[in-house]
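Work Package 3 (structural annotation) set out to generate three-dimensional models for the target panel prioritized at the project kickoff. During this period the team completed the workflow that converts sequence records into discrete structure tokens, so that structures can be stored uniformly alongside our sequence database. As a representative example, we reproduce one entry of 271 residues exactly as it appears in the project archive.
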Amino acid sequence: MANTQNKGTALITGSSSGIGAVYADRLARRGYDLILVARNQERLNALAKKLTSATGRSIEVVPADLNARADLARVEKILREDASITMLVNNAGIGAIKPLLDTDVNKMDELISVNIAALTRLTYAAAPAFVSRGAGTIVNISSVVGIAPEMLNGVYGASKAFVTALSQSLQHELAPKGLRIQAVLPAATATEFWALSGKPVSELPQHIVMTPENVVDAALAGLDQGELVTIPVLQDGKVWDDYEAARRAMSSLLGGTTPSKRYGLAQTSAA
């Protein structure tokens, strides 16, 4: 059923399938108009037609490869200039599951370009416009491997650690200016990620695989509750709270003039 309340426009990257397509459905039903960004125009058109019929929202399709500089610049321009945009969902990403030594470094360069560089540029395009209006939401899709990098390919895990760290920094810097920043950390999800990475999702133990619908519904519930980091599969939120508290406590210890005594070094003073 269409939601008659207009909440502005949400721009969603990687929105032709999986998590991005579910975000498109859920946000349209919440009253957002949409700008759908992905490489596959045929899929985008089909999704736009379906959601327009189901919700009555205005939906624009922007075919773009975020690894192509011209396409990325086009999406940045939209974010800078379209004053109707109130939400950015940075969902587009490239996955990798093979060990580092079994992976083509050129493929890892492409992964870094999309998962880190493109996400950063889109955030830089959206944030100033949101700040100027005193409101806006940025949702960055990270991954649990950002905090458990041993689980999959190290470059992929590192790229998602970047996404989580950037989100936390943005929360610190931009929340006082009226922006909402959320990092979403899915675990194994039933999307094309696995097949594109060389391992069909059907080969995974099914008890560890969440549907993209459950991921997005939990993420939006977390956003509604004011969560800064949402981990849909984590059953006890206190586990993350304790982890974050320990990190923040350690940060107060990360300054000083002398190395720890455990290194057995002679203590010297500055000249």
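Residues 9-263 form a domain with the Rossmann fold fold (CATH 3.40.50.720).
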